[in-house]
């Protein structure tokens, strides 16, 4: 015998639920969660179900009724108006009052006498009194008395057939033997930028307008109007800390640096300090804080790189030798990815006896920069660090500094990337950079938006990074840069570019690799920050469209449209009455054409009813009135359409 002996309802298969409730789902303020569950019982009694939810700061549960829609599957929605954790679960019960009421109506329609049924109903209604409001208690009392008064049979029957009893049954169910789902599930609600952002990355040391001169934070400030004008809202810097001298790498990753070589910013630490310090060539901490303030005035939020690795000169090496691996010959183990060697970088050893102090110190780096005004971190290679550390660290930082965003820069095995997202990363890098064909793009977007991943994995699409010069762009062909950018910015609500390299279409590869020749990782570069081209214009127009079209501010609202050409990709996004259709010519060398199947049902229009496809990028309008419409894209003109559908 068990305590649940009187519970007859089964509640199971609740969604969304990540790994049996081990992890939380992710939303942003203003979102709605649709919760579904299997709810059923033995026999033929009616049942009821509720979705219970509460914010972490609320003690009392709120609820909404769930509705049956298919094969014992029930659903309900609840809103997420503020940031923080929400808890939710499902409860179900045998609804004896509703069962009685339904049976009463059937018997009445069969012309049966209902004296006993009236008395049964009176007992069921009387049970509601303790939980009813004072006003409803009066109503219930009168109805109970009427149902028990055999002299008023006709009036009692009519009362049962009326609307008020139905309302009372729905309002005050008997939950004494209700079954509540075995787990309380959680949703973490972020600020808006977690779900919608446009990132621009550049190395501050390459910000100078004077060729041959090391850039500074002051130089970065001069670039803010240009970046803001293009419509970006996150300005991401690779590490800005002191760079080590021992085993410093030279240009193009040369093992030995020449005099004057600047080194790799990811080889963090020197006699100037470590992760809480600024490279003197860039300026001072006050200069950096001033840059953060000036960026905010231009609508840009500065994101820092958090790279858990040290140069051999980092103060940690002497202060905390246990945090590193030491080889039998007395030398410290540098980073390796055989056959690659990174002699200028020492990885942290998370399996050491002093791990608790290590965790605290690493967390203190993040909180230190939070104190300086940073709330976004791009984390370098998180997949090579302890999972347990990340789960603890991210939660602790976000508890102390709510709204802190963490972007996972992990290009690795799928399960590892997913685990990092589950553990708390706000956004995640993806395989987009290597998805090129129509089939690949549709399959990957379907995985991201139609499977369980949609509830915990927020993709951030980058067509290139300072580490990756993809083969698809190494030809330097302008239409390729436009299409790869356009898809990143419209398929995903979060995206970024490695700025001047991308918009200036620099593409020279290191021979045989997906890396840049003369990469900024190894040397200071000079860029023509005043240059404009067609791609710059496209970037500006797309970012402007993203800001005013809610349909482009979400990732999971995508559906792909049929188009009878495998070299063309079309997809539809909707938010309320905002309808967007994107069409892409995936062939950067040839004009492509075909017929697009327009989602008339979703648009709310009928065949032969006129509607307008307005191309935001070109300003051209097309009047359509059929389901299938002709599309033609010449890559030498513009290889994409960004249609706003006007009805």
Can you put this structure into words, describing what you see?
- With 647 residues, the protein is an alpha/beta fold.
- 28% of the residues lie in helices and 24% in strands.
- It has 16 helices and 30 strands.
- The strands form seven sheets. Strands 20-19-18-13-12-11-22-21 form an eight-stranded parallel sheet. Strands 2, 4, 5, 8, 9 and 10 form a six-stranded mixed sheet that branches. The protein has a six-stranded antiparallel sheet with strand order 23-24-25-30-27-28, with helices on one face.
- Helix 2 (115-126) runs antiparallel to helix 3.
- The protein is globular and about 110 Å long.
- The mean pLDDT is 97.
Which terms would index this structure?
single chain, 647 residues, alpha/beta, eight-stranded parallel sheet, six-stranded mixed sheet, 16 helices, globular
Layout: helices, strands, pairs:
Layout: E1 9-15, E2 25-28, E3 32-41, E4 47-55, E5 62-65, E6 67-70, E7 73-79, E8 84-94, H1 96-109, H2 115-126, H3 134-148, H4 153-161, H5 163-171, E9 179-180, E10 185-190, E11 197-201, H6 217-229, E12 234-237, H7 285-297, E13 301-306, E14 309-310, H8 315-319, E15 335-337, E16 340-342, E17 346-347, H9 355-371, E18 376-380, H10 387-400, E19 405-409, H11 414-423, E20 427-428, H12 438-450, E21 460-461, H13 478-491, E22 494-498, H14 499-503, H15 534-548, E23 558-560, E24 568-575, E25 578-585, E26 592-597, H16 600-603, E27 611-615, E28 621-624, E29 628-633, E30 640-646
């Amino acid at each position: 015998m068990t305590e649940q002996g009187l519970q007859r309802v089964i509640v199971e298969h609740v969604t969304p639920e990540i790994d049996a409730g081990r992890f939380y789902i992710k939303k942003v303020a203003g979102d709605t969660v649709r919760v579904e569950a299997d709810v059923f019982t033995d026999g033929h009694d009616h049942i009821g179900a509720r979705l219970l939810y509460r914010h972490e700061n609320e003690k009392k549960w709120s609820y909404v009724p769930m509705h049956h829609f298919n094969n014992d599957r029930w659903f309900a929605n609840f809103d997420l108006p503020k940031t923080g954790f929400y808890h939710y679960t499902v409860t179900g019960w045998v609804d004896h009052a509703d069962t009685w009421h339904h049976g009463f109506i059937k018997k009445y329609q069969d012309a049966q006498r209902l004296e006993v049924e009236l008395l049964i109903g009176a007992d069921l209604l009387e049970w509601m009194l303790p939980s009813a409001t004072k006003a409803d208690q009066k109503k219930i009392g009168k109805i109970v008395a009427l149902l028990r008064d055999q002299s008023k049979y006709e009036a009692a029957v009519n009362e049962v057939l009326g609307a008020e009893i139905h309302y009372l049954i729905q309002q005050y169910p008997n939950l004494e033997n209700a079954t509540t789902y075995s787990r309380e599930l959680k949703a973490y609600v972020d600020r808006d930028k977690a779900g919608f952002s446009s990132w621009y990355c550049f190395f501050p040391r390459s910000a100078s307008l004077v060729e041959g001169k090391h850039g500074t934070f002051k130089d970065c400030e001069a670039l803010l109007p240009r970046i803001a004008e293009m419509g970006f809202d996150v300005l991401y810097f690779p590490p800005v800390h002191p760079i080590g001298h021992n085993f410093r790498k030279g240009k193009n990753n040369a093992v030995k640096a020449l005099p004057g070589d600047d080194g790799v910013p990811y080889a963090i630490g020197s006699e100037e300090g470590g992760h809480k310090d600024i490279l003197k060539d860039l300026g001072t901490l006050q200069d950096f804080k001033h840059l953060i303030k000036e960026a905010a005035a231009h609508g840009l939020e500065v994101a820092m790189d958090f790279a858990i690795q040290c140069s051999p000169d980092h103060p940690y090496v002497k202060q905390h030798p246990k945090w590193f691996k030491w080889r039998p010959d007395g030398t410290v183990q540098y980073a390796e990815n055989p056959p690659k060697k990174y002699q200028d970088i020492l990885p942290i050893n998370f399996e050491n006896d002093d791990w608790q102090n290590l965790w605290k110190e690493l967390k203190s780096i993040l909180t230190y920069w939070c104190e300086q005004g940073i709330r976004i971190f791009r984390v370098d290679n998180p997949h090579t660090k302890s999972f347990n550390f990340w789960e603890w660290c991210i939660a602790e930082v976000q508890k102390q500094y709510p709204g802190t965003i963490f972007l996972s820069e992990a290009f690795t095995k799928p399960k590892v990337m997913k685990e990092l997202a589950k553990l708390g990363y706000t956004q995640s890098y993806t395989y987009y950079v290597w998805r090129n064909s129509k089939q690949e793009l549709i399959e990957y977007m379907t995985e991201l938006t139609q499977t369980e991943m949609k509830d915990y994995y927020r993709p951030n699409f980058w067509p290139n990074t300072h580490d990756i010069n993809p083969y698809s762009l190494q030809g330097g062909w302008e239409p390729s840069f436009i299409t790869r950018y356009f898809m990143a910015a419209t398929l995903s609500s979060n995206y970024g570019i490695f700025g001047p390299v991308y918009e200036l279409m620099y593409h020279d590869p290191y021979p045989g690799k997906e890396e840049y020749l003369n990469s900024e990782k190894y040397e200071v570069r000079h860029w023509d920050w005043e240059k404009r081209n067609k791609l710059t214009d496209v970037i500006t127009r797309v970012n402007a469209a993203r800001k005013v079209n809610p349909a482009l501010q979400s990732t999971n609202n995508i559906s792909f449209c049929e188009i009878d050409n495998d070299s063309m990709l079309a997809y539809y996004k909707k938010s309320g009455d905002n309808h967007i259709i994107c069409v892409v010519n995936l062939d950067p060398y040839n004009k492509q054409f075909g017929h697009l199947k327009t989602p008339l049902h979703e648009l709310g229009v009928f065949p032969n009813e006129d509607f307008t496809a307005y191309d935001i990028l070109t300003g051209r309008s097309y009047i359509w009135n059929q389901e299938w419409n002709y599309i033609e894209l010449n890559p030498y003109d513009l290889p994409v359409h960004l249609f706003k559908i006007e009805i």
